[in-house]
Amino acid sequence: MADKKGRRRRFGAVRQYRSGSWTAPYLAPDGERVRADEAFETKKDAEIWLSQADADPSRGDWRAPDAGAVNFRVYAEKWVDERELAVRAEDLYKHLLRLNLLPTFGALDSDEITAPRVREWRSERLRTTGAKTTVAKAYRLLKGIFETAVDDDLVSRNPCRIKGAGKESAAERRVATVAQVDALADAIGIRWRLMVHLGAYGPMRPEELAGLRRRDVDPDNLVIRVRVAEPERTNGKRAPGETKSDAGVRAVVLPAFLRKEVRQHLAWFAEKGQDGLLFVGETPTRSGSATQPQGSTTWFVPSGRSTTTTTLRTTKRSPPAPGRVLMVRMWCAPRLQV
């Protein structure tokens, strides 16, 4: 289309509708004809918009107008699946998506999620849940997803721009005293007593305790070699894998007072054979099944109150939930009256 002086425009065209409003179509780098979503009130506004569209490709800012028309749920779930995540991280991301992000953003396209919408979502989650740490984790996940979306040219800018929104300020954990650890070890029962002591005096992570085998224990020198970790997934199953870091593969020297307890546990409770698990449950399988045996117990703590545990799911080849056991230890220990 020619301008006022009769010169033909180098890029696009500016046309007026019968209604009096203006439009400014142009041919995009991908060969598609593009026009603004809404009409312009003045010719000047249309020309400014057209000039911006003309400048975008030279700056590397151009993207197809419908590039962001990708459903956020589909993109976010694919984003998680494509990453080589540790099983616990994968479970956490899926949990955060399901409970915190998808209820608000799941039905939207990626380019419909704007900075104001993100601010509104964060405020709503903090107001209704009060879970600052969880909201910070969910915000970091959302920001990470959109960092990739920017790289994929789905959106031109990350809508997560709230300073400090992804930071966590967890309270300092209290450390149980020796008397509290011993009190819980006595209360939990002889089969799990060593697990409590290894978690406290090793120290070892719950997922590391779950992966210990008989061959990892040297009762003569009181050394335990940590080689693997078996974290518990949200479905209750164990996921054999590597330790959290390379430094996690290590030799742990135990205090001398645990010598008798280590020997007794190996003799009474650990599975037979060098590959036998160190910690296994005592409940036999139901109807001969080797996959879904269950058992439950009640732990009586010295304060006089009882703490009913979650059901211990065990199999002949998988340990009970030591992560739960040690979490109960950390929850109860500061409250024990000894």
Rg over CA atoms, rounded to whole Å, is 30 Å
- Number of domains in the coordinates? 3
Strand order of the largest sheet: 5-6-7
Question: What is the approximate shape?
Answer: elongated
- Beta-strand proportion: 5-15%
Could you estimate the helical fraction of the residues in percent? 25-40%
Q: Report the structural category.
A: mainly alpha
CATH architecture of the largest domain: Orthogonal Bundle
The fold-level CATH name of the largest domain is hpI Integrase, Chain A
Largest β sheet strand count, sense and barrel closure: 3 strands, antiparallel
Number of helices: 10
Question: How would you characterize this protein structure?
Answer:
α3 packs across α5 (132-151), α6 (178-188) runs antiparallel to α7 and α7 crosses α10. The chain is mostly helical. It has helices at 43-59, 72-82, 87-105, 115-129, 132-151, 178-188, 190-201, 206-210, 259-268, 322-332; strands at residues 15-16, 22-23, 26-27, 33-34, 217-218, 223-226, 250-253, 294-295, 298-300, 306-308, 312-313. The strands form 5 sheets. The chain has a 3-stranded antiparallel beta sheet with strand order 5-6-7, with no helix packed on it. A two-stranded antiparallel ribbon has the order 1-2. A two-stranded antiparallel ribbon has the order 3-4. It contains 10 helices and 11 strands. It has 3 domains: 1-65, GCC-box Binding Domain (2-Layer Sandwich), CATH 3.30.730; 72-151; 178-335, hpI Integrase, Chain A, CATH 1.10.443. The termini are far apart.
